[in-house]
Write a sequence for this structure.
C-alpha cells in the first residue's frame, strides 16, 4: 500500500487549486532546475543540483540518466540511496492531483537499485535495496528488497531468493 496524505477539495478539480498547495515561485524554480538536469550529461552536476537546489536526498554515485523527471512540486520528498541507476525518461512523482482530492507522499528508493527506462514511480512508495525495476513499469506499490519487478500493473517477476539462485547459477 502506498503511504500518502490525502487532501479533499471542494468545487473544481484539485489541479485548479495547485497554487494553494504549493508556491508558484517554488514550482518555477524547480521546473528550471529539473529541465537543466534532464538535459545535462554530467552526473555529478545533476546530483549537486538536485541535492542543493531541490533539497532531494541523493546518495553517492547515484546516476540519473537523460530526461529523468523528478517531482516538480515536491522534490524534497524524494529520497534515493547510493549507487542507484535511474533509467532514461523515468518519472518520480511525490504528488498526484485527482478530481476531488490530491495526495502527497514521499518516495524512498534504496541503495543499489536499478530502475529501467520509461518507468513511472507513484507517490508514497518505497523501493528496497538491490531491487531491479524493468523498463516501462508503473511502480504503484512498495517493492521488496532484492526483487525484480515489472509491468503495468507492476508484478514481482523474481523474489530476492529467486534472484539469488538465478545469479548464483549463472556464475558457473
Amino acid at each position: 500500500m502506498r503511504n500518502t496524505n490525502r487532501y479533499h477539495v471542494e468545487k473544481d478539480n484539485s489541479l485548479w487549486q495547485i497554487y494553494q498547495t504549493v508556491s508558484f515561485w517554488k514550482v518555477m524554480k524547480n521546473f528550471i532546475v529539473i529541465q537543466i538536469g534532464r538535459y545535462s550529461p554530467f552526473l555529478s552536476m545533476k546530483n549537486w543540483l538536485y541535492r542543493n537546489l531541490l533539497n532531494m536526498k541523493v546518495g553517492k554515485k547515484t546516476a540519473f540518466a537523460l530526461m529523468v523527471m523528478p517531482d516538480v512540486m515536491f522534490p524534497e520528498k524524494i529520497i534515493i540511496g547510493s549507487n542507484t541507476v535511474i533509467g532514461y525518461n523515468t518519472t518520480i512523482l511525490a504528488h498526484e492531483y485527482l478530481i476531488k482530492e490530491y495526495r502527497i507522499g514521499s518516495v524512498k528508493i534504496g541503495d543499489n537499485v536499478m530502475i529501467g527506462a520509461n518507468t513511472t514511480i507513484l507517490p508514497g512508495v518505497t523501493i528496497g535495496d538491490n531491487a531491479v525495476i524493468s523498463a516501462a513499469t508503473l511502480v504503484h506499490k512498495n517493492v521488496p528488497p532484492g526483487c525484480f519487478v515489472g509491468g503495468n500493473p507492476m508484478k514481482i517477476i523474481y523474489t530476492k531468493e529467486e534472484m539469488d539462485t538465478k545469479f548464483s547459477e549463472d556464475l558457473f
About this structure: The CA atoms of residues 164 and 170 lie 10 Å apart. The first strand starts at residue 5 and ends at 8. The chain has a mean pLDDT of 95.
